[in-house]
Write a sequence for this structure.
């Protein structure tokens, strides 16, 4: 088993500042036994993570048993896919990376997450996750927390049990869910990925919902407050605060975000995307599986008892509920509830199902094609009925475009009793999540995203063949323009010809590997809804001779602690592919910053070794598609060299950051020992792709330089010598030349100036160089014009000259006014330098 | 007809294809074990009292070692003192929460279904499913009971999530059922 250095705990005393998290679905400690309650969460310390990046590894000791058609490499791909889900949260400052394979017993100093295949799980236990945290609180400028030092996801070594097989949607979402726990999230009740199986309603194409995003963003915030809103209030019963009541903001046609109340009944829901929301409160179900917050003595602060669920402002009748408008950057306070205690929770843990295909496969949650006009789905859950009858007095209604007509709720079955729910769709019904409200007497139970309304049937696969170019041709039905073909749960580059034909490039696979093929549509439906059973498969070609094992060479394969360096990787019997190739060095003390695939046999990797890294040999692994290379002791960390120059492999445009690092630009380079002090950089030399670089300024920690004008966009190798020692080369990214605005004119082709200012709402023409390759057709949607803080999509983009384009756009009516309002244009992430135009206010 | 329940739904909800998202893992995911399952899969079934505990860091997890004194044994041939490992606890300045891990109490008496792994460590079979509190009713009958568990629980035949309902039985009735299961196992 992996050993772990004892965590050095920094004791700074109890928090006096309010944590950014409310009483949320995190692992919470309270700093006092009386109000005001200051919740202190457990989370990873971003300062302890290189580049704020948490690396997730998988044990090299794979499972003891695998189901048919499953493989260790498929497991690795699914874990990697799951890390990308959490890494993609824009409002979270935590980055999550896949670290590949690690060897049991590896010692490391940097916090990490590990996935292990545990043969010590007793019968009846399939998996569990547990973050380990330091016992003492840490206080930083953004709040106080208990540092998570390590999280381990224990999967059963017998993968024939659930949650396998790894190529299933279920396994992937299991990994996303478990990673959420490992990051510090507990369960929620909004049908998001952190909900339990019974109510979860997400899909592989969109694994995180608004509540998940809010939960992780609150732990590791990045610009969250400016993009989302907040609702606060109090939940009381008989004048006393209700602890751990679940307060939900539910958006018609959208998602739900929630929070739990503090012991005094106060709550705060942060991270709510702007929109109109119903607000409801309901008790936790008896099966909540939430770890109670701890008081200062380490004792559980248990939830209060059940009560009647209710909508704001205090009604169980949805037609009398009012919505709250949530705006970005704003808080709506005083959304209070006075609830009535009851002895038990009558309705909870409801799942919905719809049926597909000749085999009438049940799909959960229910998906219904609204173009059919009506449908019947099934629901199962506690309190819905017994002995084949719906619970007397039970009602069901929908927040959304669907409706349940009178008589549209019927019980059936014996033990358990299910509900049949008839659905009709309002005129102009639109697709999207529908939330169900079950009412029973004075109580209500809200199930967010109970039903997914879609506007087409799910995709189906009729056949899987190959063309002469190694591509896989999938024929079927109900393919959409953005459908994607998956091989063993791994999305492939897909081209959709029409609703029944798609071509995909299979990810690199192993000789003779059989991969389950599925098609996923962006509405969450996939071909596995329909069957047939067995699932269609693709078998990778088998070579004439026995397949040789992949072989990978790393150069260098030794680095000192504290180094940042480029490692050149060459492969045999393994095929590197953009977006599908990951590299790992078996230790969280080595961070892989970026991988560039130059060819199927050649890749470049920037790595960063922690200054306090454990020394010694470590395993190295490469995962490319389903091809896996792993070698113990393939990489060595040696003692740090304090005199070694260290180059940070990120160049920063010193003049205008959004323009990027392009040929001819002036950029800054940072690091350590870059130049000898007080020598003015006279002895520091720098090359990029072997081209000499003009140095404008040099100090031990910063160099300003001019990027050689002849460089091509893409990765380039930077080499630095500080006059005494050579730094390890690093790869830097050279960006294309950004667009340049050469003129701004009104519709009469007059230039704007003080005598001819623009006004809000005016249509303007920009003449722009370097927008794209000459002669390219540019979709206006790719081009954004930003005036002040207002971002607008171009109305039209037309060639003006051989190298320039005319971009026409309309000034937003709320654009800022002034004598010099900055204006930039961007395309595909490349942003021009600003020009400044006069904008006069409307009379 | 709109008000008729579709034929497909009149069957008990059919086996969900394992290929799409139902199975999941909470803090813990359990496989539902019946009393017969618990009996067959356990290496020891004992009535015991908790007499002590300590926690230590074992590789990647903190385990609390619960020391129990056996007062009655239904299965297994071990001694009267057993150390049962449950993940979670405090050790070496670290704290580990393991949602779903069973909790024992110092001094309490339980009926425990235990499993000893190849490494020789002893765990609780099925986690919360293998821990029964022992209380006496007004007729002085011993009652073995456990509350419904909140962890995700999957039926091992269909792998569908199922609701746990808790268990309450007279200790003697449970002993009879366990004995019968053991006898059937011995007879095979």
């Amino acid at each position: 088993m992996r050993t772990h250095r004892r965590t050095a705990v920094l004791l700074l005393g109890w928090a006096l500042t309010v944590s950014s998290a409310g009483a949320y679905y995190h692992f919470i400690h309270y700093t006092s036994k009386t109000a005001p309650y200051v919740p202190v969460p457990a989370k990873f310390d971003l300062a302890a993570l290189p580049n704020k990046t948490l690396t997730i590894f998988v044990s090299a000791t794979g499972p003891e048993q695998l189901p048919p058609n499953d493989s260790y490499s498929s497991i690795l791909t699914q874990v990697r896919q799951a890390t990308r889900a959490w890494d993609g949260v824009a409002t979270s400052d935590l980055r999550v990376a896949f670290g590949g394979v690690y060897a049991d017993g590896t010692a490391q100093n940097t916090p990490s997450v590990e996935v292990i295949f545990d043969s010590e799980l007793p019968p009846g236990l399939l998996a569990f996750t547990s973050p380990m945290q330091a016992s003492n609180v840490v206080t930083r400028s953004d709040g106080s927390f208990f540092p998570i030092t390590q999280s381990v996801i224990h999967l059963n070594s017998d993968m024939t049990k659930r949650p396998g097989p790894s190529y299933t949607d279920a396994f992937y979402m299991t990994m996303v869910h478990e990673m959420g726990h490992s990051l510090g999230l507990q369960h929620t009740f909004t049908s998001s990925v952190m909900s339990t199986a019974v109510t979860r309603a997400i899909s592989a194409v969109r694994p995180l919902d608004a509540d998940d995003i809010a939960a992780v963003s609150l732990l590791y915030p990045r610009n969250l407050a400016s993009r989302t809103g907040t609702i606060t209030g109090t939940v009381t019963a008989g004048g006393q605060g209700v602890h751990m009541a679940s307060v939900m903001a539910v958006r018609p046609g959208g998602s739900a975000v929630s929070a739990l109340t503090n012991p005094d009944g106060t709550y705060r829901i942060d991270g709510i995307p702007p929109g109109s929301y119903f607000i409801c409160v309901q008790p936790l179900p008896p099966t909540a599986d939430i770890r109670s917050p701890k008081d200062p003595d380490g004792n559980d602060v248990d939830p209060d008892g059940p009560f009647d669920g209710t909508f704001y402002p205090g009604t169980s009748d949805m037609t009398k509920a009012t919505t709250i408008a949530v705006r970005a950057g704003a808080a709506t306070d005083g959304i209070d509830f006075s609830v009535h205690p009851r002895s038990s929770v009558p309705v909870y843990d409801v799942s919905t199902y719809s049926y597909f295909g000749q085999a009438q496969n049940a799909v959960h949650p229910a998906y219904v094609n609204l173009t059919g006009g009506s449908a019947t789905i099934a629901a199962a859950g506690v309190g819905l009925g017994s002995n084949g009858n719906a619970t007397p007095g039970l009602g069901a209604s929908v927040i959304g475009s669907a409706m349940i007509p009178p008589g549209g709720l019927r019980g059936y079955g014996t033990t358990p009793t299910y509900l049949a729910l008839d659905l009709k769709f309002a005129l102009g019904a639109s697709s999207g999540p529908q939330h169900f409200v079950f009412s029973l007497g004075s109580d209500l139970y809200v199930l967010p995203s109970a039903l997914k309304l879609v506007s087409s049937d799910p995709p189906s696969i009729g056949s899987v063949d190959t063309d002469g170019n190694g591509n896989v041709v999938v024929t079927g039905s109900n393919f959409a323009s953005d459908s994607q073909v998956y091989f063993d749960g791994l999305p492939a580059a897909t081209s959709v010809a029409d609703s029944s034909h798609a071509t995909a490039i299979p990810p690199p696979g192993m000789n003779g590997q059989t991969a389950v093929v599925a098609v996923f549509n962006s509405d969450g439906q996939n071909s596995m809804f329909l069957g047939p059973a067995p699932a269609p498969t693709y078998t990778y070609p088998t070579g004439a001779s026995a397949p040789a094992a992949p072989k990978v060479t790393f150069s260098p394969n030794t680095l000192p602690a504290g180094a940042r360096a480029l490692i050149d990787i060459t492969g045999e019997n393994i095929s590197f592919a953009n977006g599908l190739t990951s590299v790992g060095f078996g230790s969280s003390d080595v961070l892989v910053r970026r991988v560039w695939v130059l060819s199927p046999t050649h890749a470049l990797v920037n790595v960063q070794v922690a200054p306090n890294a454990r020394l010694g040999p470590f395993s190295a692994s490469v995962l490319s598609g389903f091809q896996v290379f792993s070698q113990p002791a393939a990489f060595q960390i040696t003692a740090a060299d304090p005199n070694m120059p260290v180059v940070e492999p990120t160049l920063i445009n010193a003049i205008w950051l959004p323009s990027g690092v392009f040929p001819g630009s002036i950029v800054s380079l940072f690091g350590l020992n870059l130049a000898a002090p007080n020598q003015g950089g006279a002895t520091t030399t720098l090359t990029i792709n072997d081209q000499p670089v003009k140095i404008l300024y040099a100090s031990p920690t910063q160099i300003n330089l001019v990027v050689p004008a002849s460089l091509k966009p893409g990765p380039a190798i930077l080499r630095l010598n500080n006059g005494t020692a050579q730094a390890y080369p690093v790869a830097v990214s050279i960006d294309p030349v950004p667009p340049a605005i050469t003129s701004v004119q009104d519709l009469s082709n007059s230039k704007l100036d003080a005598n001819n200012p623009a006004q809000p709402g005016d249509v303007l023409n920009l003449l722009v160089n370097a927008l794209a390759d000459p002669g390219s057709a540019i979709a206006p949607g790719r081009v954004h014009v930003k005036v002040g803080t207002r971002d607008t999509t171009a109305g039209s983009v037309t060639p003006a000259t051989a190298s320039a384009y005319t971009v026409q756009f309309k000034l937003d009516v709320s654009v800022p006014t002034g004598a010099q309002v900055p204006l930039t244009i961007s395309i595909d992430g490349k942003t021009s330098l600003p020009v400044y135009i006069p904008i006069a206010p409307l009379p | 007809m709109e008000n008729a329940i579709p034929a497909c739904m009149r069957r008990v909800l059919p086996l969900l294809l394992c290929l799409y998202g139902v199975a999941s893992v909470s803090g813990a995911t359990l496989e539902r074990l019946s009393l017969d399952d618990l009996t067959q899969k356990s290496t020891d079934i004992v009535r015991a009292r908790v007499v002590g505990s300590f926690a230590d860091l074992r590789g990647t997890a903190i385990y609390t070692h619960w020391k129990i004194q056996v007062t009655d044994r239904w299965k297994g041939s071990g001694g009267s003192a057993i150390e049962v490992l449950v993940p979670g606890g405090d050790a070496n300045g670290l704290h580990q929460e393991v949602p779903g891990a069973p909790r024992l109490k110092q001094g309490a008496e339980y009926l425990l279904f235990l499993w000893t792994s190849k490494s020789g460590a002893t765990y609780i079979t099925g986690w919360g499913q293998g821990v029964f509190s022992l209380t006496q009713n007004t007729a002085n009958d011993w009652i073995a009971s456990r509350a419904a568990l909140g962890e995700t629980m999957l039926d091992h035949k269909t792998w569908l999530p199922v609701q746990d309902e808790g268990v309450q039985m007279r200790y003697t009735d449970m002993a009879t059922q366990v004995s019968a299961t053991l006898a059937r196992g011995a007879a095979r």
Summary: The first strand of chain A starts at residue 28 and ends at 30. DSSP finds four helices and 64 strands in chain A. The CA atoms of residues 275 and 814 of chain A lie 20 Å apart. Residues 1-23 of chain A have pLDDT under 50 and may be disordered.
